[in-house]
Write the structure tokens for this entry.
Amino acid sequence: MKPEHKVAGASVPLLPEVRTEEVETSDGASISSAIFNVSTSMVGAGIMSIPATFKVLGIIPSFVVILIIAFFVDVTVEFLLKYTRHTGVLDSYGALMAESFGKPGAVALQVCVLITNLGAMIIYLIIIGDVLSGNQSDGSVHLGVLQEWFGVHWWNSRSYALLFIVLFIMLPLVVLRRIDSLRYASAVSILLAVLFVILCSGMAIRAMLLGKTEKSRLLPDFAHGMSFFELFTTIPVIATAFGCHVNVHPIRAELGRPSQMSSAVRISLVLCVAIYFAVGFFGYLLFGDAIMADMLVNFDTVSESFMGVVLNDVVRLSYAIHLMLVFPVMNFSLRANVDELFFSKRPLLATDNTRFLSLTCIILLLSYMAAVAIPNIWYFFQFMGTTTVVFIMFIFPSSIILRDVHCISTFRDKILAVLVIILAIGTSLIAIASNVYNYVGGK
């Protein structure tokens, strides 16, 4: 946590130190690089659940909720950046928490990050496995792309397909020392997300022209047994899709002009709002109330034409490759926080090859083993959205503002911080209670 002066270059730390006086140079990363990395941090597995929120909320409220959450994400990121700009030497989210709440605050953040990022990375691998090797759910068998192409064999089973992906795609990316080195992978991942949106939109528009779209609703449907409190179960899902806070500091530290970080985050938010609304709207238009929590399951259907089969495969593969490229960005912040949690007194992680490679391989191995062993962990995705994600995105940044150890928070800042905490805790408790009630009632 303590600021130290290290040599730049090949040994730049994972969470580089920021000088007290921020010097803007042309040697660092560009704002476009920051935009791609921030956007990649947001656009992950959550995008597949966005259409399901449209089924619950309806089209208009879904768009409004997406905008509101994006606004509060911008507010809380700005809370973190405000204290970072003021102190200069506090170069990580964990350092800000340590300054405001001591060691317990930093540990609380790191535990939340560990649970959230590791859970998300496991979900990424599970979805990739579903796309490549299929899955069984509710008694029905969904073939993966590899089975459709080559038939069912031992070598294209989930364990072997994921092992190949982990060794030959994930590993070369996660051993990179600087997050800026992932800028091209991040750019490709965003382009694939855009391709996914375009394909879904095209398929929905074509279905609409042919009169084959499903009935969609503009507002919630309370006439068929849906309760008002069920609406709150969608908020954690959408909030999780905007999570980027733990990557803000490492991305900012490598910017040639750190003052551009706020602009990079806002541009990324606008881009992600457009992507989420397009995916949600067209996905809901295409499948209606039959939409699943993981929309990719809906694409695993027998198409009436060869072109339809090709499009279904392209849609699934584009998203799977997107997750393969998001995985290293998520791994970057997870590895840095695990190192801060367990090895805070050791030399910088990027300068210790043994510790760096050991942590990298252990995280990758745990993710792989869990993805192979656990057939479906969407319940864990919902759990994160109402617990650890809420703390990381909303409660911790707002608490830093209210703690105000440097007396720089304005009255507006504190009012917003209180509002964010009340809304975050309130919606999470209602969502948890609604899920528990529905589960018990279903039993």
